[in-house]
Amino acid sequence: MSLQSSPSTLPPLAPGLPFVGSILALANDAQDFFYTQYRELGKVFRVRALGNEFKVLAGPEINMLMGTQAEAFSAWDTWEPIMINFGGRKTIAMVDGPEHARMRRLMRKSFSREALTSNIPMAVELISGFIKKQELGKRIPVTYFMQHLTANILGMLSNERIPGEYFDDIVYWWTTLLEVHVSHLKPASALQTKAYHRARARAKEFASMVFHDRKNNRPAEDEDNFLDNLADVSAQDPDFLNHDEALFLTLAGYFAGLDTVANVSSFMLYELLKHPEILTNTRREADQMFANGTPAADAFRNMPTLHAVAQETLRLYPIAGVLPRTAAQDLEYGGYVIRKGEQFMIANAAPHFSPEFYKSPYKFDIGRYREPRNEHKKRGVFAPFGAGPHTCLGAGLAEVQIMLMVATLLRYTDFSMDPANYKLKKAYTPSMTPKGFGIKFTSWRA
Question: What is the β-pairing status of strands 52-58 and 343-347?
Fold first, then answer.
């Protein structure tokens, strides 16, 4: 990439205190801090925290640039220690170009929108069965509940196996890894504890069991099966995908939605309970969706309110609102140069909170997705799943899964917030989640 200029000035510095910099604001709500600085300082700014300094790139233009100049952005440094800890070298989030495209093809069928829409009866049975195991009037921690539902559905779609007794181990292993290597909420010593080692061993044990059960009981006739594809590629081309990396991808169906689908679904229930009129309209759509039994694949086309609620929830609580990246080559953006090898952050969801693109951006407003407003359709201003070739592989699947889980809950239960006076507090564990948010089922609906 040729640089048109080499500016000598540094980007503006975000406000902070002597010595500690912006650490307090980052600890309180890092993503919102980045979004605020984007509005006040522009599309490129610096942040200092405890002696460290890094640049943040934001705005619709960076989201578009990630698509047109993808070769300039690398996530290798972020994910490499995670793979080394598991025993592999690389995974889909790290590689680029033809290698990345090949790995996406390997996973696409099990993580596509069609994977779920063609298996709606199975998914509804899983959701309704899990719902009916809950006790009326008993508090349900929403995020944990949604994580369990999500892992069950994705596990069945990819591997035809729910995690069962291994669920808590997978959650602990995956969350700890991300908190150490991605969000840096925990020190590296967290990976040396007995609890972590046990969770990692159990997660790997489960992956091996699922992988080899399929391998040893593979049907004689060929079929496009996720586990078969992993087994074939890891045997035929271990330089591209070795055995441990195949086991890591075997677990993807169980961990992929823990910090994404589960959290967005939780925020969606919160917003519905805070907006009773929208809840009533959404429940009416859910009842119509189930009017003739298990809904058909095209049922989501007739749920404009539910779809708008999902979109607005994704805007306010994006799945991947801030992305760590390393410059794979010199990059110019916003009049400033990012040098090859420099680590920085991309606040890809910053436009979600700009009044330039969204009227009253902090207000929950599903009307913004309808004619004539359509505020989300301007290029680069709606990026809840990231941007560019590394946009979440399961973005289409995630949107349908969120809608189906919430619609099924609305169809089969009445529920209320617990505690009734709950005030939203966002936490990062490591992804954004509604801390302390609970519900209780108050009655079953026929």
Answer: parallel
- Residue 46 · residue 12 · CB < 8 Å: yes
Interacting residues of 127 by C-beta distance below 8 A, sequence separation 6+: 149, 153, 404, 405, 408, 409
CB-based contacts of 39, cutoff 8 Å, min separation 6:
350, 353, 354
Which stretches of 9-86 are DSSP H helices? 23-41, 60-68, 76-86
Domains and their CATH numbers in the chain: 1-77+320-387 (3.30.43.20), 89-316+392-446 (1.10.630.10)
CA 136 to chain centre: 30
Got the DSSP string for 177-190?
A: HHHHHTS--S-GGG
Write out pLDDT tens, residues 289-305.
Answer: 999 999 988 888 889 99
- Which residues fall within 8 angstroms of residue 295, CB to CB, at 6 or more apart? 120, 124, 289, 407
| pTM of the predicted model as reported, rounded to 2 decimal places | 0.94
Query: 344 forms bridges with which residues in the sheet?
Result: 55, 325
Rounded CA-CA distance 9/83 in Å is 38
Distance in angstroms (rounded) separating the CA atoms of residues 226 and 155: 11
Only one residue has tokens 């108050």, namely: 442
Q: What is the DSSP letter of 433?
A: E
Please give the biggest Cα pair distance in the chain: 68
CA distances to 65, 155, 416 from 329, in Å: 14, 38, 51
Phi, psi (degrees; rounded to nearest 5) at 316: -75, -30
Tokens of 359: 């009227």
What digits encode the pLDDT tens for the residues 27-45?
A: 889 999 999 999 999 999 9
